[in-house]
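Example complex used in Figure S2.
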Amino acid sequence: MRYPAFDGAQRLERVLGDPADPASVFSYARCAELDDADEFPADICGVLDDFGLPRHYIPVEFGGELADYQHSVQLIRMVARRDVTVAVAHGKTYLGAVSAWVAGNAEQRARVAGIITSGVPVSWALTEQAHGSDVLAGDVTAEAVPGSDPPAYRLTGEKWLINNATRGGALCVLARTRPAGGPRGFSMFLVDKSTLAPGTYQHVPKLRTHGIRGADISGITLRDAVVGHDGLLGAEGTGLESVLKGLQLTRTLCCALSLGAGDHALGIATRFALQRQLYGRTLADLPAARHTLATAYADHLLAEAFSVVGARAIQALTTEMSVLAAATKYLVPTRTEAMIAQLRRLVGARSLLRDVLEQGAFGKVERDHRIVPLFDGNTLVNLNSLITLFPILGRGTEHASAPDGEGLRRCTELAQALPPPRHHRLSLVPRQGSSLLRGLPAAVTELAGLAATDPHLAGLARSAAALRDALEDLYTAMRAQPLAPVTVPAPAFVLAQRLAAGLGGAACLLLWLRNREAALAQDSASTPLWRDGVWPQLALDRVLTALGVPHPAPRSGYDTAFAVLRHQVSSGHLPSLFSVPLAEARS
Amino acid sequence: MTSLEERFGDPYQGSNPLGQSAIVAADERAELAAGAEALLDDFGLGAEFVPRELGGRLVEVDALVRRLRPIFRRDAALGLGYGVTSFMAGLNVWLGGSEVHRKSLAELLLGGRKVAVGYHELARGNDLTANEFTARRDGESLVLRGRKEVINNADRADAAVLFARTADRAGGRSHSLLLVELDGLDPGRFERLPRLRTLGLRGCRLAGLRFDGCAVDGSALVGELGTGTDLALRSFQVSRCVMAGAGLGVLDAGLFAVLRFALARTLYGRPVAALPHARATLAGAFADLLTADALVTTTSRALHLIPGSGSVYAAATKYLVPLLLEDAMNALSVILGARFYLREGEYAGFGKHIRDLPPLGIGHAGGVSCQLTMLPQLPRRLRRLGDRAPAALFAVGAPLPGLDLTKLRLLGPAGDPLLATLREDLATLPGTPALATIATALDDLVTEVAAVPARELGVQASPAALACTERYSLLLAAAATTGYRRHNPAELPWLSLALSRLAARLAPAPTLPAVPPDIEEALLADLVTRAEQGFGFCLDRDPVHRSLSH
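Predicted assembly (1137 residues):
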């Protein structure tokens, strides 16, 4: 199936050329060398600047080219499928800028847009050495400069483990504006290094990291750094709110990094299995190896589908992003991490050698990707976000209000045009709950109707009904959790993991239902996935196992998936639900 | 004799030349920490690999695993790099070599020299019988041709045990083992290949050997011509248990690092160690470490007591233990958060341990090759489980008969003593949901294995058939934990958490795992007590020198 959201990605691919060609600037070989040397990929980032990628971090209404978040997701994915380090190094500018999009005034947005357009990286300075993800414990302070009106601010303290803190020209800094702190005690500041007085800031050197070794993970120490009132983004005391709203966007976009890493790992493992000779045949001829690859592919398709729905939801179900951002940011990176680990066992010794298989890229992609579950709110933070929503999400279908049918349709039907991003509509609390969850029972009924006339869909219909029932049981368990406990009990995290998996399952089912006719009307390598509900049944197999109610998909479904995967990888296409030729594509 | 632990000193003391920061720095340079190998030389580690009758200290395999633990707890690259591969080479010779072979190899190892073990060829992987390195008879000589690749210490070993094709015909008797002294070889026809860069175990010296019509004396042949595969597969049974056991030290060290972090770090106004999720994760990792140790200990002892089962038990151990260890380390890394990702600072050692685990798991037979060792044997083993295992299998410290490598078999007898014991234990232990799940899983496995078609018992195994081996391994772990508990009654109640975690792996369930909070708390209290008092986290509570305070 063709999805126009990949148009920009394909244009970028044509510019970048075949990554396996060591002569191209953005080649696997070059990335491996930079990684060995812990060196920042400056030349590659320059190529992305020349392509105009930074303009895709700026919403259209502020003068950029970001009209559909899905375009930006797929662009970043193309970068990440070559090298996660570059994707992190470059894409972080969107994270740096998001506070301006969410909370800034027109002048501030224009200023940030100008900085980005000029090719200067912007970074997001939230975390501190002593406090990590506990941002409300932050010690960086901003005090009003006496006598200034409206007040200018004097910022003091250290931000640590900040991506591009050293190389970036500007930062959005979260700082304490009330000594007592608390949810209204922090504010967000746009700090343009070029306007700071000399001696008022100093960089904390880059730290050496497990993966993304070339990235500029460093820090900045501010000492009475004076920022004018025009640097305050939003009203004083709204810093936490703008962080949380910004995270609703950035967490969804982080999935692009996982998808790209997954594309890369699946590609390496599949190519390896197809050429590796063992016991007188190729590894890919062994049923168990095929099943490992097909299972990994099923995880990847689940991640892709959930990411597509999550990114479209930014514009179609804006007020529900608190749910979807946390769920996608938990599920997609953790699934991808586990998938890569399974593929590593298939690849074997070569995954651990630097110089043998594709420049040691397999081991590198595994190391690089492990940053993704950590940043922008780690796994526990995201699960905790979901746990705080249990009282709303656990109401159960019968007590919940009707889903936002229009929004749900726009979100899941790919041919529907999306409204432009409306960042002011982001909400910390999804008052109506989740339309994906509340729309699931009707989708299950609709599918049962289809299955009544098409016996090929009977298995999928059973899996879908099992998902609905498992979620009802989950809501019951969620309601039994204590309200606002002092510390979150450990079982709540298990429920949140299952809730995220259930949301992923609902996203898959709806995405398939709303697009299957369009997909089947086209003839492409991925079409067999859409026929007879093959891919959603595989995805639900993965989801239902996570929910503790296994419903294995038939082996024929895995065989179909493997055949599609083999075709996509062999012909230089993205391993995807969609038809996306890459730079290395052979027609 | 001063223990290895004492010689290594506190890993958290900054000035310790074998402390964590020195080891991490050496890892960055892809070297072993300066002085580390000299320390092991001085300790005479090589003697651990040599049977007592040849002048060494090797008597019981489970004791060897415990003695190696301090090294792997410190630095897995040191453990493997110094000489566990010499041990693997040695096993083949202890099993099949002549008196001359055995004496000369014992002399090398007792003298602290290194012996490489050359099975692997990159293009062939675990498919041993397809190996292309050849040794051809030419009068009194054997002429060697081909390459051995990804071989630990190939660039510096004094000798090597080489797995070579000695006949063109296919089948089990086409290969032989040779013991070759490398230094005297014709330099025009033999070379040591450059060292390979690795992504974990970076201090290990993985390299290769290339022979180009190089002649060695015919006496290099270990055992009869054509017995190479047989000798190798029997030696593997010991080395697989030892390699799996080596990883326990890595998790022990990782668990300590994260506990240390959790006690010191404040998050949301309280120590991380006070957060229920962190407590559950620490307790769970501890339970999994003990489970893994129970399995390693039991199957290592089985090599002495029920050697006929060695093939299957060693494969199951080498399959399951690396998975348990990796999962536990990953869960722990979540507590450490971003600190786990840094290659510098106080917790950089944890990241190194995480990088070292996968190569330790893959090295010397990856998961699928272990599964393919188990699968064809399962129908015969499970048809009738037969007699239970002898009590000495579980009673650690009870004397064991000497290790007789010649009693190891490629295919074990009918029946499965460990699962027979488990079935009886399940009938007598007080019923819990976890035990019920395990009992059902055992019955289901017996039924499913019986239904696997014969053609699916080999490399053409269906995914479902191959999955039987995972559940079989989990059931062996359940048998090992219940057996250990029965015969070591003073132990704390980790068993119920261990079993509920095994049950969750055996059968996903929609209900939340019901672990009584007091059990988790008791485990955590034990963990902290051991850490404070200087004891390790494995079953034997060995004394450890490491400081908890910052």
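The first strand of chain B starts at residue 115 and ends at 118. The mean pLDDT of chain B is 94.
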